[in-house]
Amino acid sequence: MIAHTLNHCAALLFAALMCFPWLPAYTADLSIGTASRAGVYYQVGRALCRLTNESYSEHGLRCETLVTGGSIANLRGLRNDTMNLAVVQSDWHYHAMQGTGPFQAAGPDTELRALFSVHGEPFTLVARRDADITQLDDLIGKRVNIGNPGSGQRATMEVVMAAKSWTLADFALANELPAAQQSMALCHDRVQAMVYTVGHPNDSVAQAVRLCDARLVEVSDSTIDILVDDNPYYAYMEIPGGLYTGNPDPVRTFGVKATLVASAQLDEDYAYVVVQTLFENIERFKTLHPAFAALVVEEMLQDGLSAPLHPGAERYYRERGWLQD
């Protein structure tokens, strides 16, 4: 009986596809590489795909959000054609374009193109209150989650470590958990501190603060001053006070911008649809996550963008009068 029902349903589906060929196929035309579901990158991709899919009847494109290892993995995925859009940190966006840092072996990605930047991402240090960590240098000798390989948080932590002349041996433990697992590791005292390059407020940070009374720690000293001064993609930032329980004061740190990038091979009309959908729904987009609330259109067109604009994005911006010759 079950087999007969399944065969009957399959026959009906086949007939529907034959009789109504205009029914949309549920395959994605656009795939956006993000990061862990616990981070804001996933929310960027989810929001963009939501807006794009809601206006399917206008442009005929479907979008899907990919959970990935983060910025480094996304930039490699673009180069290897396993995705056609990606949310990445502005510093790794720069290094991929230049063929430096983790992209030195592969060389410059001359096909990398920018669409726009999104929210600021402070480098965030969260520590257990019983760990006696009140400044960056207090991480020495502690159990620290430095992030999974391929993630932006891990790569930025490695930049900080190099600036400090630290090695993994300087920590009692250097854990490599992804963002989705680090807060519970902190609460269970498997690590005493975690680092995260992320927009705020963030669910992973909020969980650590709420469940195990963790605190945010300032990341600001002479070494970080030099790092910010020497690299145009870094800037000092401040995590506002009161975002997290038990953390009433603003916390000074440094950070990057989240940027949306693509390969030059992405169809110009597809890129046009993405930026058109975002900016024609920008006020709604701002409501889809608290980290988007303070976005400024003028800044999104230039901040953190090291790669040339994708032709589809450039076409839309010129039509709006936002770009001048």
Give a quick precis of the structure.
Helix content is 39%, strand content 19%. By secondary structure, the protein is α/β, with parallel strands linked by helices.
What characteristics describe this protein?
single chain; 325 residues; alpha/beta; D-Maltodextrin-Binding Protein, domain 2; 2 domains; 10-stranded mixed sheet; 10 strands; globular; disordered N terminus
Q: What does the model show?
A:
This protein is an alpha/beta fold and 325 residues long. The chain has two domains: 26-120 and 257-319, D-Maltodextrin-Binding Protein, domain 2; 122-256, D-Maltodextrin-Binding Protein, domain 2, CATH 3.40.190. 39% of the residues lie in helices and 19% in strands. It has 13 helices and ten strands. Helix 6 links the parallel strand 5 (143-145) and strand 6 (173-175). Helix 10 packs across helix 13. Residues 1-26 have low confidence and may be disordered.
Number of strands: 10
The helix/strand series, from N terminus to C terminus, equals HEHHEHEHEEHEHEHEHEEHHHH
Question: CATH topology of the largest domain, which one?
Answer: D-Maltodextrin-Binding Protein, domain 2
Structural class computed from helices and strand pairing? alpha/beta
The major pleated sheet works out as:
10 strands, mixed
Percent of residues in beta strands? 15-25%
Q: How many domains comprise the coordinates?
A: 2
Oligomer: single chain
Shape: globular
Weakly predicted, low-confidence segments:
1-26
Q: Architecture of the largest domain, according to CATH?
A: 3-Layer(aba) Sandwich
The number of helical segments is 13
The chain-level mean pLDDT equals: 90
CATH superfamily membership of the largest domain = Periplasmic binding protein-like II
